[in-house]
Amino acid sequence: MEELLRTNDLVLISAVEAMLKSDDVRYFVADTYMSALEGSTGFLPRRVMAHRDDIARARRLLAEAGLAEELRPAAQRV
User: Fold this and answer.
1) Cα separation of 37 and 11, whole Å?
2) pTM, rounded to two decimals
3) Which structural domain range is residue 58 located in?
Protein backbone atom coordinates (compact mmCIF):
# COMPACT_ATOMS: atom_id res chain seq x y z
CA MET A 1 0.00 0.00 0.00
CA GLU A 2 1.15 3.52 -0.79
CA GLU A 3 -0.15 6.76 0.67
CA LEU A 4 -2.43 8.59 -1.70
CA LEU A 5 -3.49 11.48 0.52
CA ARG A 6 -3.60 12.61 4.14
CA THR A 7 -6.37 14.81 5.52
CA ASN A 8 -8.67 15.64 8.43
CA ASP A 9 -11.51 16.41 6.00
CA LEU A 10 -14.04 13.61 6.47
CA VAL A 11 -16.13 14.80 3.52
CA LEU A 12 -13.08 14.62 1.25
CA ILE A 13 -12.26 11.12 2.51
CA SER A 14 -15.82 9.99 1.86
CA ALA A 15 -15.75 11.41 -1.69
CA VAL A 16 -12.36 9.82 -2.41
CA GLU A 17 -13.57 6.47 -1.08
CA ALA A 18 -16.62 6.62 -3.36
CA MET A 19 -14.44 7.40 -6.40
CA LEU A 20 -11.93 4.67 -5.65
CA LYS A 21 -14.65 2.13 -4.92
CA SER A 22 -16.51 2.94 -8.15
CA ASP A 23 -13.31 2.36 -10.15
CA ASP A 24 -12.45 -0.88 -8.29
CA VAL A 25 -9.25 0.56 -6.83
CA ARG A 26 -8.00 -1.41 -3.83
CA TYR A 27 -7.62 1.07 -0.97
CA PHE A 28 -7.56 1.37 2.81
CA VAL A 29 -8.20 4.34 5.10
CA ALA A 30 -5.58 4.24 7.84
CA ASP A 31 -5.85 5.93 11.23
CA THR A 32 -9.66 5.86 11.19
CA TYR A 33 -9.88 4.88 14.84
CA MET A 34 -7.20 7.23 16.14
CA SER A 35 -9.96 9.50 17.45
CA ALA A 36 -10.23 7.16 20.44
CA LEU A 37 -6.67 8.14 21.37
CA GLU A 38 -6.93 11.82 20.48
CA GLY A 39 -10.24 12.38 22.27
CA SER A 40 -12.33 12.89 19.10
CA THR A 41 -10.84 16.31 18.41
CA GLY A 42 -9.94 15.45 14.82
CA PHE A 43 -6.38 16.79 14.85
CA LEU A 44 -4.80 13.54 13.64
CA PRO A 45 -5.18 13.19 9.87
CA ARG A 46 -6.36 10.01 8.24
CA ARG A 47 -4.37 8.49 5.40
CA VAL A 48 -5.94 7.04 2.28
CA MET A 49 -3.72 4.24 1.01
CA ALA A 50 -3.98 2.55 -2.38
CA HIS A 51 -2.64 -0.83 -3.42
CA ARG A 52 0.71 -0.53 -5.15
CA ASP A 53 -0.70 -2.01 -8.37
CA ASP A 54 -3.55 0.55 -8.38
CA ILE A 55 -1.72 3.69 -7.21
CA ALA A 56 -1.17 5.21 -10.67
CA ARG A 57 -4.82 4.69 -11.61
CA ALA A 58 -5.96 6.13 -8.26
CA ARG A 59 -3.75 9.21 -8.65
CA ARG A 60 -5.03 9.77 -12.21
CA LEU A 61 -8.65 9.34 -11.09
CA LEU A 62 -8.30 11.92 -8.31
CA ALA A 63 -6.36 14.34 -10.52
CA GLU A 64 -9.11 14.14 -13.15
CA ALA A 65 -11.64 14.93 -10.41
CA GLY A 66 -9.74 18.15 -9.60
CA LEU A 67 -8.09 16.82 -6.44
CA ALA A 68 -4.47 16.84 -7.61
CA GLU A 69 -3.49 19.34 -4.92
CA GLU A 70 -4.62 16.87 -2.23
CA LEU A 71 -2.31 14.08 -3.42
CA ARG A 72 0.86 13.22 -1.54
CA PRO A 73 4.07 13.19 -3.58
CA ALA A 74 4.49 9.96 -5.48
CA ALA A 75 6.72 7.39 -3.79
CA GLN A 76 10.04 6.73 -5.48
CA ARG A 77 10.26 3.11 -6.58
CA VAL A 78 13.58 1.34 -6.72
Assistant:
1) 21
2) 0.83
3) 2-70
